[in-house]
Amino acid sequence: MQMIDIEQIPAGITPPPIRVGDSTIAEEAIAREMQYHPADSAGNAQLKAARALVVRELLRQRATELGLDVTGEEETDLAIAALLERELDVPEPSDDDCRRFHAAAPTRFSEPDRIRVRHVLLAAAPDDAEARDAQYRLGQELIEALRTAPERFTEFAQRHSACPSKDEGGELGWLTPGQTVAELDRALQHLSEGLHERPLASRYGWHVVIIDERREVHELPFEQVAERVRHTLREQATRRALRHYLLALEARIGVDGIVLDEDADGSLMQ
């Protein structure tokens, strides 16, 4: 199912009002809601905000039908939670379901690649060519010295590093992908253990790097991740049940001006 694309409405033409049953979603309410729905364009943020308000209004009206208290924002939140607890039918995954899911996608529940890293950050701004050249040369000097005296790394980190890790001798500990600045992160994933032969660049300057240990991805047995698997399946089942529930409310109560798409549950699950 598709949503009306507000960005495609010709200039000068007012989009139709959004109504849920007999209630109208005010443009001002959509504008206030947009801050909670970041997107790649204002139009997409507006669509997400409008959809979230439609979902909330559908649930509020259903809660009203059941006599639940929706007199204020906090009361409405509690009523919606009680409503979903009462009416949403979410099957509990069985042990067999969990085992089959784990067997079909074991890497989803694996330990990621990890590397134990030490570094010396030689700070230089991206637009300061003179400082970057000078710090690169210093990095080369430190690497040359470390080739013959690796025990001096802690000394060099404490003397030269602009990173707070200098107080720990340059120790960054165990890192997984995505835990450090992007350009350095990409380089680290491809390095072998030991002292890297040249300084590595980042937006912060140059890094003298030692990889002390690397541990590759390895699969974990079902018994160690059983609860994670069960939680994943329960969340998937909740999303499916919630989507069907919302679309059924949409069909019964009536929504004009916008149509909930296949991710109707998304704004509520977030």
Automatic annotation (TrEMBL):
Cross-referenced PROSITE patterns: PPIC_PPIASE_2
Annotated ranges, domain PpiC: 112-213
Known EC number: 5.2.1.8
UniProt key word Isomerase: yes
Record keywords: Isomerase, Rotamase
Keyword Isomerase attributed: yes
Broad EC category: isomerase
One Pfam family cited in the UniProt record for this chain: Rotamase
Gene Ontology molecular functions: isomerase activity
Catalytic activity: [protein]-peptidylproline (omega=180) = [protein]-peptidylproline (omega=0)
Family, similarity comment: Belongs to the PpiC/parvulin rotamase family.
Protein name, per record: peptidylprolyl isomerase
Organism: Litchfieldella qijiaojingensis
